[in-house]
Give the backbone structure.
Amino acid sequence: MPGLENHPESLAFATRQLHAGARGFDAYGSRATPIYLTAGFEFDDIADGEGRFADPTTGFSYTRVGNPTAAAAERRIADLEGGVGALLVGSGQAATTTALLTILESGDHIVAASAIYEGTRELLRSEFGRLGITTDFVDDPRDPAAWEAAIGPRTRALVAETIANPRGGVLDIPTVAEVAHRHGIPLVVDSTLATPYLLRPLELGADIVIHSASKFLSGHGTGLGGVIIDGGRFAWDAVPGRFRQIAAETGPDGRTFVERSGERAFLDTARRVAMRFGPSPSPLNAFLLLQGIETLSLRVERQSQTAAALAAWLETRPEVAGVDYSGLPSHPDHDLAVRLLPAGQGALFSFTLAGGRPAAEAFTRSVRLFTPMTHLGDVRSLVLHPATTTHASRDDADLERIGVGPGLLRISVGLEDAGDLIADLARGLDAARAATGVVPEDLPEDLPEDLPETVSA
Ligand SMILES: Cc1ncc(COP(=O)(O)O)c(C=O)c1O
């Protein structure tokens, strides 16, 4: 693939995020990746069309199957994650759906961490359940025995987030991968919150990595995308009868994907699944994603630093009952986070206001820089009240059990100046205190006095 072989692993991440995968494939030598906004591609003749249909990796035919702009993004992300290849689809949800439907069939079983993005949880519980694919959720993903105990005879995937949304738990990838592999099962991780800059799960034993590319990979918050990266090392044919679509079903040439595609067997099967279900990305969004990736390391490094400063500051505030950020020593996964995420623990954290929902409402109404919305990984700072949005289908007891109370707010830290963001948080806390009448006994002395009155965002 153009670009990849020119960039040996000795090149640093910051160099590869600019160069990998996007050199030398445009007929006019365009240096920026062109947007191939076309539904289809001309065949030279019938034999050419026949060849491209028989093996979509030999040439483009129709954008639902593949597109040069999407392919450039796929090569770059595969390079950054250290995978053998990647598949770009229309959203993070499409990536999870496509990856799991490549592995699983009706009657199969998933074991998943219960602390995952709520949309994924509902996808597994409700939609996959309807298709006859059942899921058991592990409440304590730190405990390998809990994963082990949930595995049954039809379990075909372990699923977790490397940094969990919304409370920031960190997955012990080597430990959970060891459990999975002992049972001949792949570990599939959603690494949206970590990004390949902070963590490369394939190097730690995960088999398949998923991202919502709508988030940090893009960063600008303008286009949706999802990506699946294949580590290329899982032995799909090790246990006869398993992973039928990848290892047993034969194509027109009489061979299975394992026989035809080798280390890319999962990826090529996933491309066929995507071609049939149709979650294709727009070439325009693939272009926007490539633009975003070029600054990934700079953004995530700075966002992580700012998040750490904000989380530490919030933890000192009397209006705040608790802060969930693995970069803080108070987080139960702090030691693991420092070990697996030495470059930073990410830009997302949650904190709980002692004044409950009224405090959260007052806070959200009064902040000027933090935009209330359901998105994350943006260059702008965002705030969300999970109990009334992403987690609205859960009852109070359930919310209490998972620690997503009425006073919990999820923060995605952007690229604004850290001092301005702390001033905005202080404004929100003031409002929360005024609204709930919760007057802390010991007001800290470092409350910023000159809060900006107007903000040009
Ligand atoms: C961790 C995680 N995975 C997947 C998704 C779904 O991604 P998308 O919105 O691109 O479908 C989200 C969305 O918030 C997420 O936070």
